Amino acid sequence: MAVLASAAKQGQVHSAAMPDQETNTTQQPVVIRQGGQGLGTVIAAVILAAAAVYAINVWSTTKKETSPAKNLEQGIERIKDAAGKAIESRN
Questions:
Q1: How many angstroms separate the CA atoms of 30 and 52, rounded?
Q2: Is the pTM of this model over 0.70?
Q3: At what angle do helices 39-66 and 68-90 cross, to 10 degrees?
Q4: 48-58 confidence digits (pLDDT tens)
Q5: What would the DSSP string read from start to end of the chain?
Q6: Distance CA 75, CA 67 (A)
Q7: What values do phi and psi take at 10, rounded to 5?
Q8: What contacts 13, CB < 8 A, 6 or more positions away?
Q9: What's the pLDDT score for residue 18?
Q10: Are 51 and 43 spatial neighbours (Cβ–Cβ below 8 Å)?
């Protein structure tokens, strides 16, 4: 065994599993076939439609949130007027 190890280090041992002649094998290229009859296009369209619905929803929600500010100001003015009238009626 030691003789084989020292001979292997020197490069003198030829294995029976590896013949001296080279074998020329050509590997076939990997081909990824695209298919599904436009399934990718359909999925992309669904994603874009969902994004549009989300954007419209966010925009309309934001628009609704800014309008209560005016209503709040009007409500505060009404409370001030009512408080002023209540104070006047006591006096």
A1: 38
A2: no
A3: 20
A4: 999 999 999 98
A5: -HHHHHHHHHT----SSS-SSPP--PPPPP-----SSSHHHHHHHHHHHHHHHHHHHHHHHHHHHHTHHHHHHHHHHHHHHHHHHHHHHH-
A6: 13
A7: -85, -10
A8: 4, 7
A9: 55
A10: no
